[in-house]
Each structure stands twice: as C-alpha cells, then as structure tokens.
Write a structure and sequence with these properties.
By secondary structure, this protein is α/β, with parallel strands linked by helices. It is built from 9 helices and 29 strands. The protein has 2 domains: about 270 residues, Spore Coat Polysaccharide Biosynthesis Protein SpsA, Chain A; about 90 residues, Hexapeptide repeat proteins (UDP N-Acetylglucosamine Acyltransferase, domain 1). The strands form 7 sheets. Strands 5-4-1-6-11-8-12 form a 7-stranded mixed β-sheet, with helices on both faces. The protein has a 6-stranded parallel β-sheet with strand order 14-17-20-23-26-29, with no helix packed on it. Strands 15-18-21-24-27 form a 5-stranded parallel β-sheet, with no helix packed on it. The N and C termini lie far apart (about 70 Å).
C-alpha cells in the first residue's frame, strides 16, 4: 500500500430506462456530448488530472460502447502507470440478480480485489451521470487535512436546478458550523430555496470502504458502491467539499438535451472546458467541417468531419454529420454519422447516430415535447409534409 495514493471506482449502473432509445446499446456514461465528448470523459479527466493511476468501471450491462471509447485509457494517461490502467467489470445487473439466487457468492469481490491490487490507501467513488470538472486533487488534499472518515462532494443549487426526483439523489443538511447533520431525499425538500446537492462523489480510505462493505453484507445490502456509501454515510465523520463550477445532472432525456444546449452559452462552455484541467477524450482525426457558400450557421457547435450546405441554428452537431441544401436544423442535437436530407426540417429533436432524415421529411418537436430518434433510423417524408 502506498501512502495517500488514490484509486477510483466509477459506477456505470444508473437506471437508463428513461433515456430509451438513446441507451438501447449504451449506458448513460457513453452518451455523446457537446460535439466530440462522452459523458464519462469528465470524470475520467478529473481522475487523470489528480494523478490517479487506475480506475475501475462497474458497468450495468454490456460494456461494448465503453470499451470502444476508452480502449487502453491512453487518452487519459492511464496506460503510462506501473500497476495502472482502466479495469472494467460489466454485467453488474445480471450479477446482482444471480447473487440474489446464489447468496454464497461475494457480490463485492471485484471491488475488494481491485482496491487491494491498486496498492492505494484511498479511493474516489462516484456514479457516472454528472457532468462537471472536479478538482479531485484539491478534494483529496482537503480530505486528508480534515481528518474525517469520508468526504462528500456537493454543489449549492437553486432548487429548480436539481431536476427530477430520483431514488438515491440526496441533499445535504448542515448546521450553523457547516457540519453535516442530515441527508434528505430530493422529494422530501419543503421550503428550501437553495439546496446543498450531493454529487454522489466520495473520498475515503480503503479501510473504511471495506468496513462499509462488511456492514452492507451483514445487512443484506447489495447495490453499487456509491449507493452503499451513501446509505451508511451518517455512521461516519464526514467532511464536505464544495464544487463551484458548471454542473449537469443527466437524469432524463430533457436534462441531457438541456446540458447540450447549455454549451451554446459561452459562460457555461468556458466554465466547463476553459479551466486549468482540460477535458480529455479519445482522439479522432478527421478533416475540418466543410461549409458551403450558401450555408447558414449560427449559435451552434459543429464538430469536425461534417458537411453543412443548409441552415443550422442553436444546435449541437457531432462528427460526420451532413446537412444538405435547403435543410433546416434548429434547437437540436444531431449525433455522428447522421444525414439531414435536402429540404428536410429538424427542430427540437435529438437524432442518434447514423440516421437518415430523407429529403423534405419533418422531425419537429417543441420545448416541452422533444422528438428522439434512435440509431440507424430512416425517417421518410410523408405526402402532406412535402
């Protein structure tokens, strides 16, 4: 064990049913964001900048989309450390159901083995649906100085910013000395205007993690490690670390769409990307985007490798998207490899990768009724649309 060395455990096990069809073949953490990133890039980048040599990813179902994106972890410098790297453990949902039928198996075995082999003395534990640029090195330093058992990272938010209420999402209750005295589910909030929202991110010693796991097994509690820590949080002395940067909690289709739209505002984009900690992602080399003489692009993010012949306004366009002549894209998120046909109109929509919106087709939603098109879909024009 190396004194003060950090390991990291990320839980890609959040319920993704509300995101269908975007999550039919990928976890929330693998959703594309802001033209060229994936949601998981933000936590991996924060971990990398804290010089954490390894990370374990516990994935709810198939890990194919994650494997394809992270590969060896080279983009985040995980491949350069001795005894480092990214370690993936998929099919956690199946494992949980299998454990319930065969309770002689240790559900937390891989967590323990990873922590032991990391030779770390502390671990950063988090979920995977928060977009933020966390200074984990600073949080770890504060944790060590506090002398407390656990540090929880939180953000002060207007109550209207906390999004939909979901199981396991909590606000922190402080006394006058800013000490943690309680935890509330978001749907239990009453008169609070400002909320100390837990980001479901924790720093603690591996010794404390193992103690919590032992207690969870004794109590018959089997779930993701971040939720286990949350369950037993008030049994320990707790330090709190306030994050003050941009945050998005990707808990619904609407919040995913809004987070992308947020990036069209310079203040939000700068707060997330223009910090001392660059956001890292897998490199993809491609040609610059082509804009034809007749194209009209305003207030949008357009990634490389695209071809724009039509109109794009207030939208996020990912790699290798083609917007043909007389086509209009407004207030939308268009994911890589999609083609918008000549004369087509797309508005208030999220269109997943490799779709074809045929000439003169209409995909028009509204701010309160977004249209979501799954991968590899062909949308044809109908006669009364043409």
């Amino acid at each position: 064990m190396v004194k003060n060395r950090l390991a990291a455990i990320l839980n890609l096990t959040e319920d993704n049913a509300a995101f269908k069809p975007l999550t039919n073949t990928r976890p929330i953490a693998a959703l594309p964001f802001a033209g060229r990133y994936r949601i998981i890039d933000f936590l991996l980048s924060s971990i990398s900048h804290a010089n954490v040599p390894s990370a374990a990813l516990f994935i709810g179902d198939s890990g194919r989309a994650i494997y394809d994106h992270i590969r060896s972890g080279e983009a985040w410098d995980f491949d350069s450390h001795t005894q480092g790297g990214i370690f993936t453990f998929s099919q956690q949902n199946w494992k949980l159901s299998h454990h319930e039928e065969n309770d002689d198996e240790d559900f937390y075995y891989n967590h323990r083995i990873y922590m032991h082999r990391s030779r770390a003395s502390y671990v950063f534990v988090a979920g995977s649906k928060i977009i933020a640029n966390i200074d984990i090195k600073s949080a770890h330093k504060q944790h060590l100085e506090s002398g407390k058992d656990i540090t929880v990272i939180y953000k002060v938010l207007d109550r209207n910013q906390i999004g939909k209420s979901h199981p396991f999402e909590r606000s922190l209750q402080f006394n006058a000395e800013r000490e943690l005295v309680g935890v509330k589910e978001n749907d239990q909030l009453t008169d609070e205007v400002m909320v100390n929202q837990s980001l479901n991110m924790y720093l603690l010693s591996i010794e404390t993690v193992n103690e919590i796991i032992d207690q969870a097994i004794e109590d018959g509690v089997y779930t993701s490690l971040d939720q286990v820590i949350q369950r037993y949080l008030l049994n320990y002395s707790v330090n709190v670390y306030e994050y003050t940067g941009y945050i998005a909690n990707i808990d619904s289709i609407e919040s995913y769409y809004q987070a992308n739209m947020d990036m069209l505002k310079r203040q939000n984009f700068s707060a997330l990307f223009h910090t001392s900690q660059p956001v890292l992602t897998k490199s993809k080399y491609g040609s610059p985007t082509y804009y034809s003489e007749g194209s009209d692009v305003n207030s949008s993010i357009v990634a490389t490798g695209s071809s724009i012949y039509g109109t794009v306004k207030n939208s996020v366009i990912h790699r290798r998207v083609k917007v043909n002549r007389n086509a209009v894209v407004k207030n939308s998120v268009i994911i890589q490899g999609t083609e918008i046909g000549e004369g087509a109109h797309v508005e208030y929509a999220i269109i997943d990768k490799d779709c074809i919106i045929q000439p003169n087709a209409r995909v028009i939603g509204s701010p309160d009724n977004l249209i979501v098109i799954g991968k590899n879909t062909i949308i044809e024009a109908v006669e009364d649309q043409a």
